[in-house]
Write a structure and sequence with these properties.
The complex is a heterodimer of chains A (381) and B (239). Chain A has helices at residues 2-12, 15-47, 74-79, 114-117, 124-132, 141-147, 186-192, 212-222, 235-242, 244-278, 280-289, 293-324, 343-369, 373-377; strands at residues 54-59, 70-71, 84-94, 99-100, 105-109, 136-140, 154-157, 163-171, 181-185, 198-199, 201-206, 230-234, 330-332, 335-337. Chain A has 381 residues and is an alpha+beta fold. Chain B has a domain at 41-64 and 88-230: P-loop containing nucleotide triphosphate hydrolases (Rossmann fold). Helix content of chain B is 33%, strand content 28%. A 6-stranded mixed β-sheet of chain B has the order 6-7-8-3-9-10. Chain B has a 4-stranded antiparallel β-sheet with strand order 2-1-4-5, covered by helices on one side. Chain B is globular. Classes of the chains: A alpha+beta (381), B alpha/beta (239). The interface between A and B is medium-sized, with 29 and 37 residues.
């Protein structure tokens, strides 16, 4: 207990040096948390589209949604295929198809069947109004929060070909990418942008999920001799393909995450080494009192441990503050990913921060504590 | 160097030599030194600067190791001990008092005194009792909650002495313990050490340049050219 008090007070009395060390470790832990949460965000996106019974019919050889153009007339032919229970043509209008942190996505949908495909929480009266009012829109919760849109408001988006809509309500899809989207009536959207009859994709529901593969083949075969070919895939696979850009980004981010941990360890080692240089006499004094080198090293490592705990708490708290409020998002090809900061990520970040501080402090502590005390205390007079 | 002290031999140096590199050559502050200090003795070590007084203290404390010879404390030959074994041995055998006090600034007086006790396998109540006793004997109980920066030099040295005696060591070593104090405070500190020797039969070995401090010793040893050249027996001037 006395050693713990001593370590804590030594840390607190370190002034600017302690502050800088704690600050740099906290920043590293925050960066680590952020990068880990990207991976969780991608996993979350895939999980939110895990319904194996939903197929996506997309234009073959096209990757980005705005370039997929399928005749809306395909809908009736798809609906006629065995085991297809519902079809919904969807028209995408995106502010940006590349990688962006500021995507506005409008999806033109069929309000009458939309909820057969997507599970959302919404005010029923508002949804009812949406099924009837052509210029109305339901806004995803994150989009509403991001742009400050409120029910009753009329929004005109000059950057999206001047599309305008009346916000009728706000829905929540439980944190999926859909929360970033504005839903409008498809025909209204097509008319607004003067592109009637061409849609981005068809969401297709299969009555028996185990037959999804066969149904997908039948759909693509059906249009094999048409001018516009289709590529039909289960939604999860489609999402995985669409967000493959994210996956590469996340792999790179994870590399940076591990590098940031290495940086953290080196920063701690440097700080402990510098601190010890000024405290050799104190360490020697401890050894003179009877602390062996292991105990003296433990005391120094305890300071690193406290630094790690304090800094990791700050870093994780910062991450909760920033990521928990959904302030960070990134979109690729019309899909928005939010870093997800779970308890597991928080724990992993905390443990990584503390662990790296311990590792960073250990070698200089061992070296400092095993120096012969005569070197620090010797006086030949 | 023999002695006719009052108790059994506590510290024995047998043919101890220590030399250090200096420039291109070596200096030999201790050259084949023999010395015995008995239990309960108050011994003062004097000599010009650079003659090896602190070196001898460091060797007896196990801080430094001799190039040759043996050092025996309370019958234990510590010459071959490892650094860590010496550290553990010091907790129960040696109390060391410095010129600059060397208190840990982040600990209160009481905590400084308790620090070496934290290494001993004693019950918490017993440790508290030993700390209380050490603070009381050194007359610093009323300042026990203060940090070193809140204490005067004399008070700091009292705390350092309390810390040195807290584990009831076999031997108290002092390296110019009054060197940083004014004469009045130095006298109070020396009175305290003399009392520890007298009342508690503490064996004390002090290094000093100050004849006034040396006057407290029962024996005064003079180190010169690596040898103990002179041994002056005194009455315990302040007994």
């Amino acid at each position: 207990m006395l050693m713990l008090r001593m370590a804590l007070r030594t840390l607190l009395s370190g002034g600017l040096r302690s502050l800088l060390t704690i600050g740099s470790v906290a920043v590293c832990v925050f960066v680590f948390s952020l990068l880990l949460s990207l991976d969780e965000g991608v996993q979350g996106m895939l999980e939110s589209s895990s319904d194996e019974g939903v197929l996506i019919v997309f234009e073959k050889y096209k990757a980005c949604p705005p370039y997929s153009r399928l005749p809306v007339s395909y809908a009736s032919q798809i609906a006629a295929i065995d085991n297809v229970s519902a079809v919904m043509p969807v028209r995408f209008l995106l502010s940006d198809c590349g990688t962006t942190t500021n995507l506005i996505a409008i999806h033109g949908v069929e309000p009458s069947v939309f909820r057969e495909f997507r599970d959302i929480t919404v005010d029923e009266a508002a949804w009812q109004a949406f099924t009837q009012e052509k210029g109305g829109a339901m806004v995803g919760s994150r989009a509403a929060a991001k742009y400050g849109w409120q029910p009753g408001q009329t929004v005109t988006l000059a950057q999206l070909r001047g599309v305008s809509f009346n916000v009728l309500g706000i829905y929540d899809s439980g944190g999926s990418s859909l929360d970033e989207v504005v839903l409008v009536d498809r025909e209204y959207l097509e008319q607004s942008i003067n592109e009637v009859g061409a849609v981005t994709m068809f969401l297709t529901k299969v009555d028996d999920a185990s037959l999804s593969g066969q149904v997908a083949d039948r759909i693509d075969s059906n249009f094999a001799n048409y001018a516009t070919l289709t590529r039909t895939t289960p939604e999860k696979g489609f999402m995985a393909q669409q967000i493959s850009g994210f996956s590469e980004l996340v792999a790179f981010a994870q590399l940076i995450a591990w590098l940031s941990l290495g940086l953290l360890m080196l920063a701690t080692a440097n700080s402990v080494s510098m601190g010890l240089r000024d405290r050799m006499r104190e360490v020697a004094q401890l050894k003179l009192l009877g602390f062996d080198s292991r105990l003296a090293a433990q005391l120094i490592v305890m300071e690193s441990l406290l630094t790690g705990i304090l800094a990791s708490v700050i870093g994780v708290a910062l991450a909760i503050l920033v990521l928990g409020r959904g302030a960070v998002s990134i979109s690729v090809e019309g899909y928005t990913m939010y870093p997800q900061f779970s308890l597991a990520t928080a724990l992993a970040s905390f443990i990584a921060g503390v662990g790296m501080c311990l590792a960073g402090g250990y070698i200089p502590a061992r070296r400092g504590a095993s120096r012969p005390i005569g070197l620090a205390l010797r006086g030949v007079d | 160097m023999s002695n006719d002290g009052k108790g059994n031999p506590l510290v024995e140096l047998r043919g101890v030599s220590r030399r250090f590199k200096s420039g291109g050559g070596f200096i030999t502050p201790l050259d084949n030194v023999d010395l015995t200090i008995n239990e309960g003795e108050f011994v003062v070590l004097m000599g010009p600067s650079g003659t090896g007084k602190s070196t001898m203290l460091n060797l007896i404390a196990g801080i430094d190791k001799p190039d040759s010879g043996r050092i025996i404390v309370a019958g234990e030959d510590i010459t071959g001990y490892s650094e860590d074994a010496l550290a553990r041995w010091r907790t129960r055998a040696i109390g060391y008092i410095f010129q600059q006090f060397n208190l840990l600034s982040v600990l209160t007086a009481r905590e400084n005194v308790a620090l070496p006790l934290s290494l001993l396998p004693l019950a918490a109540a017993r440790k508290r009792e030993l700390v209380d006793t050490a603070l009381e004997v050194t007359g610093i109980t009323d300042r026990s909650g203060h940090y070193p920066r809140q204490l005067s030099g004399g008070q700091e040295q009292r705390v350092a002495i309390a810390r040195a005696i807290a584990c009831d060591p076999l031997l108290l070593l002092g390296d110019e313990p009054t060197g940083a104090l004014d004469s009045k405070t130095a006298k109070m500190v020396m009175e305290l050490l003399a009392e520890l020797n007298r009342r508690f039969n503490k064996t004390i070995l002090l290094v000093t340049h100050d004849p006034a401090v040396a006057a407290y010793g029962q024996r005064v040893l003079h180190l010169n050219d690596g040898h103990i050249e002179e041994e002056v027996r005194t009455e315990h001037a302040h007994a």
